Amino acid sequence: MSLMGHRFVHTFHVARWLSTNARGEHEYSAPEPHACRYQGSVKRLVAADGTDATSEAVLFTHVKVELRDTVYPPGADVKDVGAGKQPLRVTPLNNLDGQLDHYEVYL
Fold this sequence. Notes:
Blueprint: E1 10-15, E2 17-20, E3 26-28, E4 32-46, E5 52-61, E6 70-72, E7 89-94, E8 100-106
Antiparallel strand pairs: 1-4, 1-6, 2-3, 4-5, 5-8, 7-8
């Protein structure tokens, strides 16, 4: 049983990264809708190599999102390519039994 599943009241879309051609252009799948909890949250993220970024929101979801995927937050127009965001970090979290419960996707 998920610790957060009952709080997934929003819907976001994810376009999966498929490939990159020789010109560096990325190809994505059609955006798929998924349940989530969306929370605006400004947070500074620091990587192991010392680079940092500032996230503006976090998505809590059961769906695994990769860093190359494009995420359309709740309310974003999936037909507008500029409305999609690349995740800054994806963190898997476990439940009390130590099994995968959900993911935190920082945007």
